[in-house]
Design goal:
The complex is a heterodimer of chains A (about 110) and B (about 120). With about 110 residues, chain A is mainly beta. Chain A has no helices and eleven strands. The radius of gyration of chain B is 13 Å and the shape is globular. Classes of the chains: A mainly beta (about 110), B mainly beta (about 120).
Chain lengths: ~110, ~120
Amino acid sequence: DQQVKQNSPSLSVQEGRISILNCDYTNSMFDYFLWYKKYPAEGPTFLISISSIKDKNEDGRFTVFLNKSAKHLSLHIVPSQPGDSAVYFCAASVYGSGYALNFGKGTSLLVTP
Amino acid sequence: ETGVTQSPTHLIKTRGQQVTLRCSSQSGHNTVSWYQQALGQGPQFIFQYYREEENGRGNFPPRFSGLQFPNYSSELNVNALELDDSALYLCASSLSSSGPTDTQYFGPGTRLTVL
């Protein structure tokens, strides 16, 4: 049962524009959310995270928004750069299993020049 | 600072065989988690080890087992391999398992193919 869902398998954005990646979750026990970026032949790289007590967290060009009532989070990348082209995974953690990460299926972002 | 390393990079086995995958944690990290990523899917949590003890387990059968050594390196063992075990196996290390903010750092993975 997929508890973290990324319903857009792919997204294409022009360089300089905003990229918005979306993620929905079903388990109300999740209290920490993360975004990872993955290039081919590499492991996922941590990007940004947010606790459930916040609704926004910003780090440079990356901002994550959390809407707990809607069980929805999004990652905004502004401005998008060609080097941002990668697969982005949304993940949520559950207390009780060493904060194991529950991942979505990923969204492949392509930033075109 | 050395990152998370995994070996081997690729592995081909036949159904019914056993396999051992290895992971070296990032320097200073005492917690290691293993994930299975099937094609087109996100990584799925297998289990986690903290100070050589299993600290949590996902929905995987007992034929998936692990070890963590005093130097915090780790092994994932899979017995009686099935075709569906074909996947990328990812190891992630973190400083502790005491809180969600302990970022997990991933290795490049081992690609296992079961024929």
